[in-house]
Amino acid sequence: MEGCAMFSSETMVAAVLGGPGVIETTRLPIPAVGPDEVLVQVRRASLCGSDLKIRDRSFFSGDGPPPGIFVPGHEYAGVVAAVGESVDEFTVGDRVVTEAHRGCMRCVNCLAGTYTGCLNYGRKDKGHRAQGMTVHGGFAEYVVNHVSTLYRLPDSVGFDAAVVLTTVGSVMHAFDALGSLLSGASIAVLGPGPIGLLAVQVARQLGADPIALIGTRHSRLELGKRFGADLVLNSREQDPVDAVRDLTGGRGADIVLECSGAPSAVNEALHMTKRAGKVVLVGFSSSRCRRISTTPS
Question: What is 11-168's CATH topology?
Answer without folding.
Answer: Quinone Oxidoreductase; Chain A, domain 1 (3.90.180)
